[in-house]
Design brief:
The complex is a heterodimer of chains A (116) and B (114).
Chain A lengths: L3 E4 L2 E4 L5 E7 L5 E8 L3 E10 L2 E4 L7 E2 L9 E3 L8 E8 L11 E2 L3 E5 L1
Parallel strand pairs in A: 2-11
Antiparallel strand pairs in A: 1-3, 3-8, 4-5, 4-9, 5-6, 7-8, 9-10, 9-11
Chain B lengths: L2 E5 L2 E5 L4 E8 L5 E7 L5 E7 L5 E3 L5 E5 L4 E6 L8 E8 L8 E2 L3 E6 L1
Parallel strand pairs in B: 2-11
Antiparallel strand pairs in B: 1-3, 3-8, 4-5, 4-9, 6-7, 7-8, 9-10, 9-11
Classes of the chains: A mainly beta (116), B mainly beta (114).
């Protein structure tokens, strides 16, 4: 089954304790992206990656890191989490064949992060 | 810069009634417009999209949207609401100038009353 998976689905942590949220897709997509969802603000893009070893900032990159060492994986790293990073996080992927940016993004199920 | 405004964070409709969700966008170049739906505890899935060509776009589950350039709008409609339409709906915009950024509106939560 074609899908985007994220782990963990739920995470409660404390300020300053480094954490990683994993994201993996099995569709051989070139493009991957991370979003955070906050009430009333919709989804805001954190980082995206056009392909292996190619990443770029989205609209809200402060406090986050990413890496893209393999095509299928795109982990999100919070080196020193703070309470304002409490949010619902989504990973997404998209094929860049054919229409490229017109193509549908496929979303993972989300990771609910609470930073105390 | 591009942006999206969704009017109404919550909409309540009766089963069988028209669903109308409003979306206005801002983009300095021709936009690509999307509607996504999020069911409870799930990720987003694409309902429909407008890129070029026909301005009335049909999507899944009986939804459609019309691109109106003069009004910078992309409103989503469904003639007859079903209980299964209860979800949160997001309008989003992208463009060639924006590269690979997809900008979302704040979302509209739809409640369907029996």
């Amino acid at each position: 089954e074609a899908q985007v998976t994220q782990n963990p689905r739920y995470l409660i942590t404390v300020t300053g304790k480094k954490l990683t949220v994993t994201c993996s897709q099995n569709m051989n997509h070139e493009y991957m992206s991370w979003y955070r969802q906050d009430p009333g603000l919709g989804l805001r893009q954190i980082y995206y990656s056009m392909n292996v070893e190619v990443t770029d900032k989205g609209d809200v990159p402060e406090g986050y890191k990413v890496s893209r060492k393999e095509k299928r994986n795109f982990p999100l790293i919070l080196e020193s989490p703070s309470p304002n990073q409490t949010s619902l996080y989504f990973c997404a992927s998209r094929s860049d064949q054919g229409s490229g940016i017109y193509n549908e993004q496929f979303f993972g199920p989300g990771t609910r992060l609470t930073v105390l | 810069a591009q942006s999206v405004t969704q009017l109404g964070s919550h909409v309540s409709v009766s089963e069988g009634a028209l669903v109308l969700l409003r979306c206005n966008y801002s983009s300095s170049v021709p936009p690509y417009l999307f509607w996504y739906v999020q069911y409870p505890n799930q990720g987003l899935q694409l309902l429909l999209k407008y890129t070029t060509g026909a301005t009335l776009v049909k999507g899944i589950n009986g939804f459609e949207a019309e691109f109106k350039k003069s009004e910078t709008s992309f409103h989503l409609t469904k003639p007859s609401a079903h209980m299964s339409d209860a979800a949160e709906y997001f309008c989003a915009v992208s463009s060639k100038a924006a590269g690979n950024k997809l900008t979302f509106g704040g979302g509209t939560r739809v409640l369907v009353k029996p």
